[in-house]
Amino acid sequence: MHIQELIVQEPGRIELCEGKLDENLASHEALVETEYSVVSAGTEGAGFTGLVKQMPFGDDGQYPRGTGYGNLGLVLAVGSAVTMCTPGDRVISFSRHASRVKADAGRMALPVPGDTPGEKLVFARIAGVSMSALRSSSVQPGDTVLVIGMGLVGNFVAQILQLAGADVMAADLSDLRLEKARACGIGRTVNNGRDSLKNAVMDWTGGRGVHIAVEAIGISELVAEATLLTRKHGEVILLGSPRATAVFDATPMLLHLHLKAIRMIGALEWRWPQHSSERTRGITDNYRLLLQWIADGRLKTDPVLTHLASPQDCQIIYRGLASQQEEFLGAVFKWR
């Protein structure tokens, strides 16, 4: 069948292209007609800008390349072994930006609440990344938590940690992103491009530092700064994926980590199993919870949706997310 799909042709250039999709379904696949897909400015942005070429491991930046991993749409047909969804369900999946996709329903093609707009629910895909910070940490009600970076991932992790009872401070260089954080209920914010983040944190915590610091961008120097703002026996959560080369003196960070017995924890979403067990929670249950929080209004998405766009406007959207942070934050494509 003929489809439309987003393809990054080369660094800095993305196009809506005509493509073909084999109609034959494997036993674990679901054929989905896309309604909405959400853009990940970090992971997808690395592919759009070419930053992916600097990563010490990966695919070395092969182009042309498909993009996207947050898709919400209507199930048209399912393979013989699919149990997670049935034809007629609206589902969220880890599928790309395309008018129709074959979702891996053995992994994720999860039905969503039927009475909530899709442009809200599709943000659960990004919040699923954020959820791993909560699952990875030992956060307790009343803990002080610093979240550095108020892109979508950082915004949602700040909201999620507040829902868990933490006292959260959000930091970013963008006034727009801090404004959106406050609109989502994050009351304590600081622009660390204008004001001293160290002073803000130490004034807030009485000079002790935070219980938990979350770096939600993937900038190595900010990991070091977050560590130095963390108290004895605290935790530093690496939620963003460091990609760019960094050259700086890591000794102050490492000495503080060592002397203060701080734990540094990698919080990549895929460290968790897909399905829950008696000992651990799984990714699928995370998404069930997040979808319900969005439907209930507990996890706010309206303030972060700055652009609801046609896929034809993909170049404008990706360029804006990469370079215009005072205008672009959350972008969703509407496919039909």
Nearest-integer average pLDDT = 96
Radius of gyration: 20 Å
* CATH superfamily grouping of the largest domain: Medium-chain alcohol dehydrogenases, catalytic domain
- Characterize the biggest β-sheet: 7 strands, mixed
Number of helices: 10
Number of domains: 2
Total beta-strand segments: 16
Q: What's the assembly state of these chains?
A: single chain
Q: What spatial form do the alpha-carbon principal axes imply? A: globular
Portion in strands: 25-35%
Short description:
The protein is α/β, with parallel strands linked by helices and 336 residues long.
Lay out the secondary structure.
Blueprint: E1 2-10, E2 13-20, E3 29-38, H1 43-49, E4 65-66, E5 71-78, E6 90-93, E7 100-104, E8 109-111, H2 118-121, H3 124-136, E9 144-148, H4 152-163, E10 167-172, H5 175-183, E11 188-191, H6 197-205, E12 210-215, H7 220-228, E13 230-238, H8 251-259, E14 263-266, H9 283-296, E15 305-309, H10 314-323, E16 330-334
Parallel strand pairs: 9-10, 9-12, 10-11, 12-13, 13-14, 15-16
Antiparallel strand pairs: 1-2, 1-4, 3-5, 3-7, 3-16, 5-6, 6-8
Helix pairs in contact: 3-4, 3-9, 7-8
